[in-house]
Write a structure and sequence with these properties.
about 35% helix, about 80 residues, 2 helices, four-stranded mixed beta sheet, alpha+beta
Length: about 80
């Protein structure tokens, strides 16, 4: 985990007092990354699962900026095969 990436996201969003938009992108192996986009300027940050969890925890503690946990759009590239359910 790169804590500096979490710091960059928070510094950018909190300097503007904003909550970022979040998208989850998963590969067919269900390795996922999270993309946080600033709604003001469109700047994007790519986070691993561990980094995103840290960002959510810190944003929840701040309650004024960062990412709200309820604003997560999940994107699955392929439907799950029937045997994986």
């Amino acid at each position: 985990m790169d804590a500096r990436q979490v710091e960059r996201v928070l510094a950018h969003l909190c300097s503007k007092g904003l909550f970022g938009d979040v998208r989850q992108w998963c590969e067919s192996r269900y390795d996922c990354v999270y993309v946080v986009t600033c709604p003001d300027c469109g700047c994007c940050f790519v986070l691993s699962e561990a980094e995103f969890q840290e960002l959510v925890e810190r944003s929840t503690a701040l309650q004024v900026c960062g990412v709200p946990p309820d604003r997560l759009e999940v994107r699955e590239p392929y439907p799950l095969p029937p045997f994986a359910r």
